[in-house]
Specification:
- With 507 residues, this protein is of the alpha/beta class.
- The protein folds into three domains: 10-28 and 47-182, Phosphoenolpyruvate Carboxykinase, domain 1 (3-Layer(aba) Sandwich), CATH 3.40.449.10; 187-256 and 322-504, Phosphoenolpyruvate Carboxykinase, domain 3; 258-314, Phosphoenolpyruvate Carboxykinase, domain 2, CATH 2.170.8.10.
- The protein is 23% helix and 28% strand.
- Strand 15 (243-246) and strand 16 form a beta hairpin.
- Helix 1 (17-23) runs antiparallel to helix 3 (115-121) and helix 7 runs antiparallel to helix 8 (388-401).
- The longest helix is centred in the last third of the chain and has 19 residues, at 475-493.
- The termini are far apart.
- Its EC number is 4.1.1.49.
- Keywords: ATP-binding, Decarboxylase, Gluconeogenesis, Lyase, Nucleotide-binding.
- One of its GO terms (biological process) is gluconeogenesis.
- GO terms for molecular function: ATP binding; phosphoenolpyruvate carboxykinase (ATP) activity.
């Protein structure tokens, strides 16, 4: 029943991108740039409808839903019978470039949904041979009457039913690959990666590898692609914007050959993404396009989750590499508005704790009823399969093996919010300057007595004292807020049995 091959009335194997676009022509809105835009019925991932199929080898985490094998088998049997009467597209692609992290992937999808493989084709690497035996398979039936995503990570197969959102396709393979890489001693991380080429305090040109974790709305993609106003021989190289695999030496394997980015509010000043989004070969999803082909990225009538897909080679500041030789700096991006400083330097135990905390605050775009409240996701990664404590523990083990790796907490929100005052905004300019100075090694640090992590005493090019949270509260207010946040954080960490005590004690 978990066979990776399917039977169909007709299978169209590995059509070209041009053929796929032609198959999907009936639902295309053509933009003035010549690119295709598609409108979906479902406009975000269906996390609440995602189930891991039970298996003796598999122990699930606290936040993961399971489904009995018998129930899954019944649904899958119905799907496979249905597909016998359908035309199906079969697409082969490769995830990753390094021999130790490469997976052959196959997508089966009903032909009327050809726009999904058209988009997927731009995100992964070409398959070298037809008729290869795939490592990972996704069977996708968007028109299925019931919405369910069934994941069997042990067998390497996912069934996506009743949703036509492209993100489900993309994430299905990344989710299974992350699970597979865990057995090789790696960690699958929901993080962007880049290289900053910069002269240090001694004037020596260095290449510094960064990976950046962040929940939706924290600015992960913005910081991944930002050039930090570097000129000449200094600059950046964008490696990945979604998922990397970290090994115990600090090496980060890249996974994808394309970017799937949010288009909300894009404007010409956002050079990298705007140029990508307005290319003829970019594919847009749920972006407003009028009858004349005019694109309006600020019109959120359809959704605030409009997206674009483009191959890496079409994006400036990229090169032929997707791997990062060393994740020298790890950045946990959060967005809070009160007592979290713009940046803090973490020891390994604190870094593992903040990895497990994966915290930010809810936005009005996410859940308006919880706007401003704390939001947390282990590793900022909603695609973990297995006990969350294993992820945090392994993260700490990797840091201990690599004492040269430095970790930082970066707040992209504001500080000092109180009453009607929304706080002192930490602008993109401030955050990108902080990252540049981290790469340069040009921040002087001091210990924060309340949290034990280090905060900046001096940052070259910034008046960092302006963002000291203590400026905005009385001593009593500040102490109470610390007490409440510490309690919240400790309660979250306590949810995950087996987490090392040194991680629990770091907060």
């Amino acid at each position: 029943m978990f066979d990776k091959n399917i039977k169909a009335r007709r299978i169209c194997s590995n059509p070209s991108a041009e053929e796929l676009r032609e198959f999907a022509k009936f639902e295309e809105r053509k933009t003035k740039y010549g690119s295709a835009c598609y409108i979906t019925k479902v406009r975000s991932r269906s996390a609440k409808n995602t189930y891991i199929i039970k298996d003796r080898e598999l122990h699930l985490g606290v936040g993961q839903q399971s489904i009995e094998v018998s129930e899954a088998v019944e649904i899958i049997g119905q799907v496979r019978n249905y597909l016998k009467g359908k035309e199906v597209i079969s697409m082969d692609k490769v995830l990753g470039k390094h021999p130790e992290s490469r997976f052959s992937c196959r997508l089966y999808i009903t032909k009327e949904s050809a726009r999904i493989p058209y988009m997927w084709d731009a995100t992964l690497f070409p398959a070298e041979l037809n008729n290869i035996e795939p490592d990972l398979v996704t069977v996708y039936v968007p028109e299925w009457p019931e919405r369910k995503i069934l994941v069997h990570p042990v067998e390497g197969i996912t069934y996506i039913l009743g949703t036509d959102y492209f993100g489900e396709c993309k994430k299905s393979f990344l989710r299974m690959a992350m699970y597979r890489m865990k057995s090789k001693g790696c960690l699958g991380l929901h993080a962007g990666s880049k290289v900053i080429k910069i002269k240090d305090r001694m004037g020596n040109l260095r290449e510094v590898g960064f990976i950046m974790f962040g929940l939706s709305g924290t600015g992960k993609t913005t910081l991944t692609i930002h050039d930090h106003d570097l000129k000449g021989e200094e600059g950046i190289i964008i490696r990945q914007d979604d998922v990397v695999f970290l090994n115990d030496k600090g090496y980060c394997y890249g996974t994808e050959n394309g970017f799937f980015f949010k288009t909300e509010g894009l404007e010409p000043s956002q050079k990298v993404l705007y140029q990508a989004a307005t290319r003829e070969d970019c594919i847009l999803e749920n972006v407003w396009v009028d009858d004349s082909g005019e694109v309006d990225f600020s019109n959120l009538t359809l959704t605030s989750n409009g997206r674009g897909v483009v191959s890496r080679e079409k994006v400036i500041y990229t090169d032929d590499e997707v791997d990062l030789k060393k994740a020298d700096k790890k950045i946990f991006i959060t967005r809070r508005n009160d007592i979290v400083p713009p940046v803090a330097k973490l020891n390994p135990q604190q870094a593992a704790a903040f990895f497990v905390l994966g915290e930010s605050i809810e936005t009005s775009a996410g859940d308006p009823t919880r706007a401003g409240q704390s939001k947390r996701e282990v590793g900022t990664n909603p695609f973990i399969i297995g006990p969350e404590a294993d992820e945090g523990n392994r993260f700490l083990e990797i840091l201990k093996k690599n004492p040269d790796i430095e970790c930082f907490l970066l707040n992209t929100g504001s500080v000092g919010a109180k009453g009607d005052f929304k706080g002192e905004k930490i602008t993109i300019k401030v955050t990108t300057e902080i990252m540049k100075q981290i790469a340069k090694g040009a921040i002087d640090w001091k210990v924060d007595p309340c949290w034990g992590y280090q905060v900046p005493a001096k940052v070259e090019g910034l008046n960092i004292a302006q963002y000291n949270p203590e400026r905005f509260y009385t001593g009593e207010e500040y102490e109470k807020m610390i007490e409440n946040l510490r309690k919240e954080r400790r309660e979250w960490l306590a949810r995950f049995p087996g987490l090392y005590n040194e991680i629990l004690d770091a907060i």
